[in-house]
# Entry
Amino acid sequence: MPPHPAIEQIKQILGSKGWADEDGMLAPHLVDSRGSYQGRCLGLALPATTEEVSRIVTLCAHHRIPIVPQGGNTGRVGGATPDETGTALLINLSRMNNILEIDPEGHAITVEAGCILQNIQQAAADADRFFPLSLGAEGSCQIGGNLASNAGGINVLRYGNTRDLVLGLEAVMPDGRVMNALTALRKDNTGYDLKHLLIGSEGTLGIITKAVLRLFPRPTSQATAFCALDSLDSAVDLLGRARADSGDAVSSFELIPARAVEFASRHVPNTRPPLDDIPDWCVLLEFSGSGAAPSTNKDLESFLEGAFEAGLITDAMIAQNEGQRSDLWRLREAIVAAQKPEGASIKHDISVPVQAVPAFIRQANEAVTEACPGIRPYPFGHVGDGNIHYNLSQPEGMAPAAFKAREEDLHRIVYDITQSLGGSISAEHGIGRKKRDDLARYGDPVSLDLMRAIKKALDPDNIMNPGILLPTETNDNDKKPIRENRP
Ligand SMILES: Cc1cc2nc3c(=O)[nH]c(=O)nc-3n(C[C@H](O)[C@H](O)[C@H](O)COP(=O)(O)OP(=O)(O)OC[C@H]3O[C@@H](n4cnc5c(N)ncnc54)[C@H](O)[C@@H]3O)c2cc1C
# Structure
């Protein structure tokens, strides 16, 4: 196929550092982080400034060239991978990685969208401030990708999702114009808050190029414990009690099943069970505070004594130093990798109201076991936010392909239960390409119509990340939402 006539102009705008089209350079950008999607593209644009992004997008709009925005390419739903046609331009923001301004007094930091999340955390710490967004991919994901997917992570309970951490944004819109909402104002009631349209839009409404983010006082004390729960139901009671007793100093509350401790100890170096006896369900609990907030080991110890007397926990281990705290968090982070050597897996990222988490896990475990005897449920995650990564490992001895062939059935079972409990089929990973049809099935039809109307208004030629997030109209007309069928 001859190169698209616009490519020469794009190359001229970007210069030699800003363009790649050799197979070796392109390869890692053409496959998603789970290895589920493999695409092709016209080339990889690596702009260095907002102006360059704007000029390329203007050209693409003129020629109706589809654009796929890409950050660190760590997303879990295939949203940053171009399709197989090879007609799209990939725009990766990794060269736009400057921290532009830090204002400790104003508790704000201004960054380019290609900044790696960990570098923003470090810049905040260097200024004696705290940027709370934290997740397993923080060493390689970019803030633009975090914003576009409204990422969650381990500190949502205390500080909110990425959406809650943003003061202002700059973005290049699908016609190439630059929306300048790059403000550090805490109050600005001047009409629609357009930054929130871009946040969570998964690259379908524009390319985020800069952001002003909220900073917080640096926690001066932290206390971390691994707790053995008396039962799954105790998790919810323990959380409520921990929040009330600590003056809401709970920053993380992560559910860890015995199976995850077992798999991690077996497969991931330097991880071991923190307690001699691991019951079916455990929680990694962290208090953190500044100033007089009660978050020392002594406060945690007295809280845990009360929880023990109330019959919520049967044992606990409090980290006595930073090394022990890192060991506990290493175990938590190892859960995902530890599942892989156990064979094929099927994954869900769901949320339900916090108090419904035990019912969800019980109902789902029962239903998937009935559908696929021997299946090994592997639910873990941010129970404090009602967000469970409801992963499933194949039965021992089953052929991986035979298990994967059950994927759609098992998704239906899990998502039907999620919906019956008032939950969401995507708590923090987004929709991307992976869950587009599921959104058609489970999403509210009016909300979907409104989303399409917004997309049409801002991107009438559908050049921004086409095929991502929004189901095609026939999809959801064909599949009548289950919600409407319920009595
Ligand atoms: C080990 C691991 C742990 C993870 N843990 C969590 C977790 O705890 N919580 C959680 O929420 N997620 C988690 N994730 C997934 C998470 O969404 C991503 O890691 C991160 O938020 C995506 O950032 P990225 O820069 O890699 O974006 P990408 O993967 O490159 O892109 C994600 C989406 O954003 C769009 N996009 C990227 N940059 C821009 C931009 N500048 N403007 C407009 N659109 C853009 C893309 O088109 C795509 O749709 C994890 C992933 C991994 C690999």
Summary: The chain has five domains: 6-92, 99-217, 221-340, 344-420, 436-485. Residues 107 and 143 are 17 Å apart (CA to CA). The two ends are 55 Å apart (CA to CA).
